[in-house]
Every structure is written in structure tokens, then in C-alpha cells.
Amino acid sequence: MTQAAVAAALAGGFVGYLLGKEERPPTEADIATYLREAKPTLIRTLRIDTATERSVDLYPMPGQAIYVKNPEVPTQPVYIRLNEPDAAELEITELRKIKSPFYRFYISNAAGAGVLELEIHKTKATDLAESQMNVNITATTAIVDINVVASAVMMPVDIQGAYIMMPVDIQAQYMNLEIDIVAQSVGHIEIDIAAQSVGNIDINIAAQTANLDINIAAAAVTLDINIASQAASLNVNIAATNVTLDVEVQNASITVTATNLSIKIDAQAVGVYLQPEWAAKERKDKNFSFMAMNLAVGATGNAYYTVPADKDLYLCGFSFEIYATNNADKNNNQIGAISLYNLDTTTTLAWLGGNGGGGVVFAKPILVPEGEQLRYSWSNRSNHVASGYVTVWGYEVDV
Amino acid sequence: MFDGIRKLYLGDFNNMSQEPQPDGSIVVTLTTHGEAKVYRFRVRDLYGLNEEVLEEEVIEAGPPQFIRDRMEEARKQKRGKR
């Protein structure tokens, strides 16, 4: 169907309705067909150079409203008459807007200076100063851009669709935003809030799968959870086949007064690591060994390690082995001893002796602070030449 | 500064062994989890005023190539069964 044919076919419908001459409102299908086929110009701009004098000059332009974009520009007032040349004359540069159906209008003005700009609206849906707009869309695909700039905005939104993408940019002094989402799957919900104060942020999620990422990047972060009530219940329930719950806290304190703090883990796939274990898991562990060969009776062999700057070394245990160097002594007692010593503080940290070897795991890690030097020693306390090994283990953390 | 002695002073290793030598020097061996390299160096006067690295070598470590080939073959067979 050609454009002319479509326009002719719908002339008594959509166009007629727009002009207020048709009683039957057009259906949405009528409107969509007309807009797609006829591609009408619904808003036109008219420029009137007031340097030319006019006396009831005809402008055969139909519409529903006229807006004056620059009423302050003309040096002389401009007058308008709607529809008929003998209609009431209105000073449009003073009124600034006219909302009334018309199929033509007349302009009068004395010669002056300045170009007056008028917007001729063929529809009655838009108003620059104040507006109440109901948008009802029924379509296979809908793209709706909404830009609202006003001192007060009330905009309830109800959307039902198989696939929805809806970026929202809101700037306001006060905002109350309630969002209810019911969907089989929710891809990404990103909320950026920049405000002096935030009232309540309630998040209720009921879904088969949900990812909730909270990322805070700031020079200083205060995240306070304060619960003041006679009865408080703070439940974290995780029911999953495999759970990874990483909580990394530095300088934390937990104070429990006159109550019970129970941590119950009822899952095989959940583990709690103490720091030495965690260090090994994270490959931050340190293992030292020292081999001393052919030490004479009473002799001592030493090995050293200086803890690097910005790290602290925690020692968790040490062990040793001693054996006779010569075959003739191998059936005798093999007495040896090991020690840990802080050279900077001249402090012996641990001693251990034994026959043939031995080892101990420290119930409390022994700290060697950054920059200080550890010496681990092995001594031959047998009555013959002996050889042996020392191992020391622990972990380092950044300070 | 050699790679090995630098790693020692940075604490950039997991395992360290020391073996005193007859001439008074010490052979230090450093390894790191997941890094298939062994840093071995012989040093005189370790942590002393006149510390001097006499020798250094970086040894490629890890399982030999034929073991890695078998591992890769096993992984391929496992993927094929899925």
C-alpha cells in the first residue's frame, strides 16, 4: 500500500482523531500502521521573522497545541487567531502556549525585530510545562526512552515481558524506589547509589540461583551492622553441595557477653582453617632444612635466616635426626640437640634434645618479627662423630 | 644481585635448605610451590658484612617430560570419557 493510499485510508481515523474531527478513537493497530507507513511529522517548528509586518496572514497548518519557544525575542508583540480570520485575537508572545485544536491559524504583528519560533504539535500527548502521560504499549518489540526532568515526578512502572533490558538513571534530591522482580532468571542487577544519606535498602531474593556481589572500593569503608532489640535473630543458612565461604578479616574482634556463640558446621565439604593451615593452602608456608655432616663430639652446626622487611615469620615446629658417621658407632646412643635462637633479641626460642632424633609441634606459633634473624642449630651430644638434619617449619605473613 | 640471593632477602620462596661446605661456605637451595625452578647458590659469609655469592645455578625442576606426556595422555582420556 502506498503512503498516499494509507494516509487516505486512515484520514478519517487517526488523522481525523488527532484533529478532533473523528469520534471513534483509532485502535493501536491503526496508529502503528499509520506511523510505519505514512511517517508523519507530528511536531513542526515555524519561524516568524517579525521584521516583516503581518496582518491576519494565513498559516494553513493543523494541530493541537502551539508552544512559543522564545517569546522574549521579538521586539513587537505577535498575535494569533485560530481557525478563522475573525476569531478572537490572542497575544501569543504573552500566552506562550495555546492548547486547542485548529486546522489553520492567522498571524499579525507590527514590524519589529527578532525571529519568533513556534512549535506546532499535531498530537495532544505532550506538554512542555506540565504533563500527565499514560503510555500503554502492546507490541512484539518495544523501545521506549524516557527522559524526565521536572521538580516532582510520579511514575509507577509495570512491566511484563519475556525479555527486559531497562537501564535507569535517576538524579533527585529525594527518591523512594521500590522494585519488585519476579522472573525465572535475573542476569545482572547493578545499583550505584551516591547520596548523602540512604534510608532503607531491603533486598529480598527468592530464586533457584542467585549471585549477590557486594564490592566496596573506597579509601575508607565503614560497614556497621548494629542490632538493638530485645530478641535478635541473625541467621545465615547456606544449604549447598559445595560451599566456598571466604572471609578475610584483618584486626577483627568479636566480643560475646553472657550468651553462647555456637558455630556448627554440618557438611563434609566445609572446612575451617587455622592460620598455619591456611598459609600452607595459600602457599605462604616456610620450610627450612639444615644438613650437618661429620660433626665432632660437642660441636654445633648453625644455619640462619633473616626475616625480610614487611613480613613476620611464625614458627610452628621443628625436628631433627642424628646418626653416627662411622659404622663402628651406629649401635651406640645417638644423642643430639637442636635449638631456635633469635640473634637480634639474643633469645633462645626453643630447645629439644633426643636420642636418634625428635620433633615437636608448637601449640603456639613462635614469632620472629620482620628484619630479625633466626638461627637454627644442631649439636652433637654423642661421644662420637655424628651427622644429621634439622627441619623447621612455619609461615610468613605480610605486616 | 643474583636471582637466588634476591629471592632469599625478599622471602620469595617456600623451602630453603642449607648445607655447610668444608671451606666454610654454604650451599643454599630455594624452591617455591608451583614454580618448576630450583635456585641453588653457594655463598660465603651469609648475612655477613662480606657476603659473597660464589656460584649460582637455576635448575629446571618438575617431573621429566615422559611423565608429563603420560599425565597429558591421561587427562585427554578422562576428557574423552565425559
Structure write-up:
The complex is a heterodimer of chains A (399) and B (82). Chain A is mainly β. Chain A has 4 helices and 16 strands. Chain A has helices at residues 3-18, 28-38, 92-95, 275-281, and strands spanning 43-49, 54-59, 63-68, 78-82, 90-91, 97-102, 105-109, 115-121, 285-295, 300-306, 311-324, 335-342, 347-355, 357-368, 373-380, 386-398. In chain A, the strands form 4 sheets. Chain A has a 4-stranded antiparallel sheet with strand order 1-8-3-6. The longest helix of chain A is centred in the N-terminal third of the chain and has 16 residues, at 3-18. The two termini of chain A are 79 Å apart. Chain B is an alpha+beta fold and 82 residues long. Chain B contains 2 helices and 4 strands; from the N terminus they run αββββα. In chain B, strands 1-2-3-4 form a 4-stranded antiparallel sheet, with helices on one face. At the A-B interface, β9 and β10 of A face β1 of B. β9 (285-295) of chain A pairs parallel with β1 (15-20) of chain B, so a sheet runs across the interface.
Layout of strands and helices, then pairs:
The complex is a heterodimer of chains A (399) and B (82).
Chain A: H1 3-18, H2 28-38, E1 43-49, E2 54-59, E3 63-68, E4 78-82, E5 90-91, H3 92-95, E6 97-102, E7 105-109, E8 115-121, H4 275-281, E9 285-295, E10 300-306, E11 311-324, E12 335-342, E13 347-355, E14 357-368, E15 373-380, E16 386-398
Antiparallel strand pairs in A: 1-8, 2-7, 3-6, 3-8, 4-5, 4-7, 9-16, 10-15, 11-14, 11-16, 12-13, 12-15
Chain B: H1 3-10, E1 15-20, E2 26-31, E3 37-44, E4 52-60, H2 65-81
Antiparallel strand pairs in B: 1-2, 2-3, 3-4
